[in-house]
Amino acid sequence: MSFSTCLAVRGIHGSSDSRVCRRVALLTAFVVLVAFLFIVAMPVRALAADANDGENGPHPAEAQAWEIIDQDGNVLSSHNAQAQMPMASITKIMTAMVALDSGISLDTPVTIPDGLSFQADAQLCGFKPGETPTLRDLIMGMLVYSGNDAASYIAIAVAGSEDAFAELMNAKAAQLGMTNTHFVNPHGLEADGHYSCAHDLAIMGRYALENYPLIAQAVTTHSVTLTVGGQPKTFQSTDDLMGSYAGLCGIKTGAVESGTTFLGSSRRHGIQTFSCVLGCKTHEGRFSDTAILMDWVYDSYMKGVTFTRKSWPIRLSTYSLGFWGKVVTTSQSDARGRYLPGSRITYSCTLAKSTLADANGPTGYASWYQNGRPLAYATYSTGRVITNVSSFNVFALPLFYDMTELTAA
């Protein structure tokens, strides 16, 4: 059923005050026409807006490079996104994916080898040679606490050496289309030839959360308790945005001498974003810049629209208990949603077809969608009985637009 069909009603008979009622009806028609033209025109104008870096885009304060994409891989904003830069511990997301691809059971004990050394300031879980944490323990310690030693032990357990494991990482990167990425170690400590770019890492983050449930769980875990040196030890997440940014979905921090990094994801209004900031100057800057990107998407790039209001009449029907009265169908509440520019908005609407209606009763519902994602929902019902209604059919004129025709400009 089209929107105009849903809104059309049959002509009705008025009373002796029909002249006054006709004027009221004409005024009502004009108000409804203006309201619907405004609602339909808003998205059309917004669809042509430039969402990329520039005056209309976000402005992170520290990041030298960034990109933010949606769940379909569409780039919403980017800056220097192809520049090759150190990715730091974001590396560990690829390490986790390759380890999980290996098929080794997560409950397999991994014997901690002797002889490995790490730079003095490297963050370590502190596993001792001869200890046997499970592969799951190592992955959790690596992703939650960013333990560099856990990453190395995973690489050796899976491929026999860090060099052999790096080859698997590069093969996985090629599979994902990460053309500006090269791995030489499993942890992300700075090394010649170890680099990526914001675009590649945003792609990797999206793929990881969509295809690896353990990674999605780990990157939203506030702390993990592992046995280290024969004693339980609790490790806190390095993600400062967790618990402070509404809708955050992870995923990985990073810090090297050349700058701090953050690969992030969040979900609001049914839209999930994946962002990456590289080359930030401070510990806090990577988080504040990520919040700037995400806020821009939800508050500026996505456009708000009211599809219907509680006060807007949808249909007039003859009162079922007496032809002297009419009942008006309206939404039980305002229906408002947010949409992404550039994609078609569709809807479905179901209304009772009878021309007779009871007062204060349900009559139907409507839903609005974008690419299958629900935008808003409205439940329609009748109100009280009204009298002295004009026979002029305020809905008979072509006042209403078919929302299914709303497409990108």
UniProtKB/TrEMBL annotation:
Q: Which UniProt keywords apply?
A: Carboxypeptidase, Cell shape, Cell wall biogenesis/degradation, Hydrolase, Peptidoglycan synthesis, Protease, Signal
| UniProt-recorded Gene Ontology molecular function terms | carboxypeptidase activity
User: Peptidase S11 D-alanyl-D-alanine carboxypeptidase A N-terminal domain location, by residue?
Assistant: 61-281
> Superkingdom of this entry's organism?
Bacteria
Q: Does the keyword Cell wall biogenesis/degradation apply?
A: yes
Instruction: Report the PANTHER family cross-referenced here.
Output: D-ALANYL-D-ALANINE CARBOXYPEPTIDASE, TRAFFICKING PROTEIN PARTICLE COMPLEX SUBUNIT 12
Q: Which family does it belong to?
A: Belongs to the peptidase S11 family.
What's the protein called, per UniProt? D-alanyl-D-alanine carboxypeptidase (Penicillin-binding protein 5/6)
